[in-house]
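Example record

Each entry pairs one chain with its bound ligand, FNR.
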Amino acid sequence: MSTRFQAVSIADYEEEALKVMGGDAIAFYNSGSDGEETLKENRFSSTRYRIRPRIMRGISHVDMTSSILGHSITFPVCVAPSAWHRFANLKGEVETAKGVTSAGVVMNLSSVATVRTEEVTSSFPDGLFFMQCYCLGNKRLQELMLREAKRQGFKAIVLSVDCSVISKRRKQFGPSMLERINSEMLPINYMQNEESSRRAEEEGPAAFLEYFMNMAHGATPVGLDFIRWIKDTSELPVITKGILTGKAAREAVEHGADAVWISNHGGRQLDFSPSTLDVLTEVVDALKGTNAEIYIDSGFRSGSDVFKALALGARAVFLGRPILWGLAVRGSDGVRDVLDIIKEELRLCMMLSGCPDINSITKNHVINESDYLAAKL
Ligand code: FNR
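Structure tokens for the complex follow.
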């Protein structure tokens, strides 16, 4: 860890994470799928949107508080599920949660959390945790996992619907990662409670991991009914993560989803899928007349990126890699700093745009570059 490190922007954390992390792991975190077209798109799509400020609104401070599924958050930026935090910090998800809960926002725990979820939830009894899950090939296992989530106090289930198979990734686990997985990491908490996964575990970490990969990404042929099943079984609100069209959003909500999460998985799944900002309006239109909340992620790196998403109709923005960079560089302090940097940028953006609170950020504050240029002709 670099003690003198001081960041002005998220880009500083990205640069520093490249220096402090092992080559294999940072390449795994930062890479995307296939030709990485969507990953590149995520970097630039926000620049196509311009902010239209209001002037002289008599504002001396802004209120950034918001809520998500009825839970209060200090500002509408939360933490997406990402696997393998122990590659960034030895304490893994416990360290991440320390930073996130101190910031007063939601933390998603990945199905592939590298410490026991109970260790995380019980360390921060006031924390707001959502549990991410895949559509597993073993329903008994899925049931166990959902019941465990409820018991441990998770507030919602995030069902990742864009991962029935793992894409062709530019960079999968490199040799140093595999060595560590084999020697010390036993992820995938809930699996130890079930007979067949216990047998796989007894064969060793590699067999266990393979078992999980088949279970979670072995093309389980689930249909939309699965959303209702997850909701009924878990007795928790369900968020479908990985929505990229208005139709998919509508279908998910009609089948019981309480919220939809627009995501291209940070450019790690279907390459050439669109930027999430570009599909936000379509999803907002498709969900008019429902109470479903809309969240978004993939490529958000600054307060003005967040402002644009809120203006176009997202209730909250989630961060993936920036949190891992913060964790790698300065542990929980880095995680907190990443969130604080974005929060301060959002505050400034709101002040400069004449928005005293989150609800006053409207679609009139943002315009796509192409419409803007056309409007001036
Ligand atoms: C992810 N993501 C992810 N999503 C999920 O539903 N379950 C998971 O276990 C993971 N694991 C994971 C690992 C790593 C290393 C990354 C980078 C991402 C996707 C994540 O939740 C989110 O959708 C993206 O990371 C958002 O994009 P940005 O913010 O990373 O650009």
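The first strand starts at residue 49 and ends at 51.
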